[in-house]
Amino acid sequence: MKLVVLGGGESGVGTAILGKKKGYEVFVSDFGKIKENYKEILSINQIPWEDEKHTESLILDADVVMKSPGIPEKAPIVKKLLERNIPVISEIEFAFPFTNAKTIGITGSNGKTTTTLLTYHILKQGGLNVGLAGNIGKSFAWQVAENNHDYYVLELSSFQLDGIVNYRPDIAVITNLSPDHLDRYAYDYNLYIASKFRITKNQTENDFLIVDHDDVEINRWFQNNKTKAKKLSFSLTTTVEEGGFEENNNLNSKINNDLFTMPINELALEGKHNLKNAMAATAVAQLMKVRKQTIRESLSNFQGAEHRLEKVLKIQNVQYINDSKATNVNATFFALDSMTGPTVWIVGGVDKGNDYDELMPLVREKVKGIVCLGVDNQKLFNAFNDVVDVMIETTSMTEAVKIAQRMAEKGDTVLLSPCCASFDLFENYEDRGRQFKNAVHNL
């Protein structure tokens, strides 16, 4: 059996290692450059690879192909594989049959990283032998090859879900839905939503699906579609029968008539959206029979995700916040909504078909100045130029932070919440976030 791996990054190399261990003939091909440390690992494991090209003769004879999530379906090599009916799957799909571990799959437009990290944190504190994988941490396939976890908490993007056939999470979570990555879904929001709901397509009546009760699109999906899984939900507006809700300034979570409760002001994470993330993680923990005391302690001592509303420094009474992971309008909406005082907003990058209208009321109310950090900022100018007093363009993070410092006064906040992808000026959102933090520390 020949396994071809497209993409020599974390998920690609992990899949190659697992494939080799399971007796596949493996070949790794990357159209870009493979990082030196990954080349070394492939060579040590005697796995042939190529980069900066796709040699068709070595790829089109595959029995199965694992495509890294960053490669779009419309890539020429992928089209050729599909024309020949060669299965093109995701890393999750490939690795799933090789483990008996239970998996918790978490997806959604926003909050999935925080919910995944928080769930992992609670289960680990609860003494479970648990791994963290998917979109974060070490690749799932790699861990299946080398570790023996009983449980995995997986952060799953829509791209990873597009490549599943049989994968079935024991517990699935959909945090929320808002337009994202529409450039990969022919600018059709319904295709993107269908992609997210693939997480539950193989679930049985023994499995659980946890969703946001307040989400318009999730509710619309359930009007026309069904899941076999047992559905639990969480809400900030109503008392749900099974799942999480807010009452008397407490987070409540009711599973199988067992009520967990905790004061909201004791949660480590602030903001309404994080209350929802905490409800989702709590429901998972209760289903996994983690002690209530452990859940309470974990929710109060959790250190949030890096690059997600991360407080960097306070300089001359101005708070600098790194929200580089906000790559869409909905994420930035949460960020601006949680600002309490006047805000200088650093925004921009590769626009994925954003509609900035829903940000208008928040920008009017909270934003005193905007620093555009992108190669093409025309759309941002068109949207906000008449709304704020000052708008300045730059293509350097150091300069953006210095300009923001000049605009900010005591009691203000400088917020990096780009609303866009990072690929025009940075390697990825982590690189962008780290550059922001370095620039702040150098002020």
UniProtKB/TrEMBL annotation:
Keywords: ATP-binding, Cell cycle, Cell division, Cell shape, Cell wall biogenesis/degradation, Cytoplasm, Ligase, Nucleotide-binding, Peptidoglycan synthesis. Pathway: Cell wall biogenesis; peptidoglycan biosynthesis. Residues 307-419 form the Mur ligase C-terminal domain. ATP binds at residues 108-114. It catalyses: UDP-N-acetyl-alpha-D-muramoyl-L-alanine + D-glutamate + ATP = UDP-N-acetyl-alpha-D-muramoyl-L-alanyl-D-glutamate + ADP + phosphate + H(+). Residues 106-285 form the Mur ligase central domain. GO terms for biological process: cell division; cell wall organization; peptidoglycan biosynthetic process; regulation of cell shape. Cell wall formation. Catalyzes the addition of glutamate to the nucleotide precursor UDP-N-acetylmuramoyl-L-alanine (UMA). Belongs to the MurCDEF family. This is UDP-N-acetylmuramoylalanine--D-glutamate ligase.
